[in-house]
Each structure stands twice: as structure tokens, then as C-alpha cells.
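Re: folding output
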Amino acid sequence: MLATRRFLPAALRLRRAAWQRPAIRSLATLAEESSFKIPLIDFSKFLEAGSKAEKRNTADEIVSGFRNVGFIYLDKHGIPESVVQKAFAQSAEFFRLPAEVKSKLEWEDPRSNRGYVKIGRERVTQSADANEIAQLRAKAPDFKESMEIGRDWDKTWKNRWPEEKLVPQFKPTMLSFFQTCHELHVLVMRAIALGLDLEENFFDDQINEQFHNLRLLSYPSIRTNLLRQEGQARAGAHSDYGTLTLLFQDSVGGLEVQNPHTKTFQPGTPIPGTIVVNAGDLLARWSNDILRSTLHRVVAPPVEKLSETEGITPARQSIAFFCNPNGGAKISCLPTCLGVNGENKYPPVTTEDYIVGRLSVTYT
């Protein structure tokens, strides 16, 4: 075999090498794609741990997931399924209200980040250029509507609630769900602290003001060919702004997560009973990019066929709880995350300045 290869004509050897090189790259790409999987974490092992060492085992799994992928599936997290389903039912009831009723509650100010956002008003993207985002919005707006809810005791910014008679129990249901999500956020941040070699309660007094955002999301059904136009998606590729996002999905699907190595998007397929949790920009900054804020998007899931050439993408619901540090918290590199020579990739920034800045260019 070696002798045969030695006496191959030069041109043939070059062609043969050219055939082989793409195959090698392809195998490497396949290996990177197969290793890029959102890990499933049994959080009950942390909640029921009898020792710090047992907690640390789960904490390491969580930090590893955020380090390698930026996303985890959180299983056995302690939030009853009945609580989640009640929130979904109330959300669906709200979005069934007439457009003229919802428009009276419209989102008005990035400092508030509260109220109803109609289809096409938001265009999530990684760009920070207002003109570029305006062009993207005009060409391919995000095909979704949302309702944004913040902490209800804020003296400056008020939530915008529908009348009780229109959606009975909507306000108490959402406020209770907000609190439930905050409490889970605290526990996950304690796990992250342990996984980063910090004291377990390191983040407690930096997230206790509940400077969070509960987002109810409705993706109406749409003809699939409209979602396949250039740049169009139900929600464009973006990273989230805060520390963590708790995402509650229905069974329709559509979430995709970008593999940072291959730049391909892979499905974040719904797993019943789990919460998809991803790290956001401020957690990435806090950790000096040890924890990854990964690009993701929402695209068309499998379609219902209308004809040989056309289909319809079914309606989808989700609820996202965007977890943030306190508004005035100074986000600078954690002491255990500095580079080998003390490098810090990012200048300090406050939570409010960063998030308001990002929201200001995302909405019209």
C-alpha cells in the first residue's frame, strides 16, 4: 500500500489530498456538534443535599453546563407543574384579549420595561446600533407579542395590569409566579457561587431587590413561507442581558441554541417538567466569560401542511423569567475568575445602565 501511494502521479495525489481534507474537517465538525449538548441537571440533589460536598457535586455540573454550552435543563427544580400550567393558562387568557384592550397597556419606557408589546415592535439582535436595528425591524420584525411584568412594589415604575374582570386572577397569579421564580433564581445562584469557589451566599445581597422581568410570550400561528424570508424568525438570534433566564416552554418547540464552535444552531427540544436555564451577559461579564452567554433564537418548528407548497407554523407559548442583579449592583470580575495574570475583560458596569442601554435600541 505504501509503495503504491509513493508512485501515484503528483496530480492524482493532490486531488486525493483535496478529497480527504474536507472529510477530516467534516469529522471534526461532527465531533464538535455531537459534544455540544444541553446537559440535564437533577436539581433535587442540590436541594436535598446533606452536606456542602454533596451540594458541590451538583454545583460543578451546573457550572460545567454554563461553561461549555451556556444552557442547562433544570429537572426536579421544586416548582410544581400545576403552578406552571396555571401561569400558562392565565397568559393565554391575556393574549386572547382584543388588540385594542391590550394596546392600552403598551410598553412605554426601557427604564420601566413593563407592559404589552405588540407583534413587530421588538427586534432582538446582538447589534447595539439603533439604525441597524431599525432596518432589521422594518425588514424582519420578531413575530411574537409579549407582556412584561416587573416587581410590583416599585415606587417609580408601575406594572400595567388588565382589569380584573377581563382576566380574573391574572395579577395575583403572575405576582406569585414572579416570587416563585425569584426564589429558584436565588438557589441556582448559590449553586453557581459554590461552583466558582465562592461562599454559597456570595450573591444573596446582590440579587435581593428582585430587579427581574417576567415575560409572557405568545407566538401566533403563521404561514411558514413568511418565517423563511431572509432574516425572519419568531425571535432573532440574541443573548440575554442579565444573570440567568428561566424559560418555561410548551410542547411546540422552536428554541435553537448556537454552537459557538461550529456556529450552527441546534434545537433546545422541550423536555416535560424541566426548565431551560441559560446564562446571560451580566453573568458572563461577572465571570470574565468563564460562564458563557450563548446566542439563541426561536424559529419555525415542524409545520402543519396546507398544500404541496405551503404550510402553517402552529402557535407557541412560553414564559421567560429574566433574572437580574440589583439595579445598582456593580458588575465587575469575580475574585475567583480573574485571568492568569489578573486580566479582566470588561470594565465595571451597573445592572441598570447595561440593561436599559440594551433595551433602548431593541424597541421602537
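--- second protein (sequence, then structure) ---
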Amino acid sequence: MPRDPRQIQLEIDAARESLAATLDQLVYRSSPQRLKSQGQAAVQQFLQTPVGMAAVGAVGLLMTLVLVQKVRHRND
């Protein structure tokens, strides 16, 4: 039994709307500005944890040691 052309058109329209919604969602999820904001928020949240604070302290200590080593080497 052949399908009704109106029903076929309704199915095509529904599929088109679904694809458009999916595309809109993909564009939103991959937005560079949104991804940047999410990354910044994640870093800020991490840096407020004890592990994050320790990591910042370790990096600061390492940079200080490197700087002292360079100054000592320059004076030799």
C-alpha cells in the first residue's frame, strides 16, 4: 500500500526540525567563547582546592630556584 504524500512530508519536516535542533546544540557546545569560559572556571575552581594551592606553591618555588640558579651562574 503506497504511503500518503502528506504523511511523508510531515516526516521530512519533523526530521528537518530535529536535525536543525541537533545542529544548534552542536554549535552551542563547540562555541569557542563558551569553551574558554568553562576552562577558566575549571582552572579557578581547581586553584581554590588544597591540591591546586600546593601546585601553585610548587611552581612558584621551582621558578624561584631556577632564578636563583641563573643569578648564581651569571656571577660565576
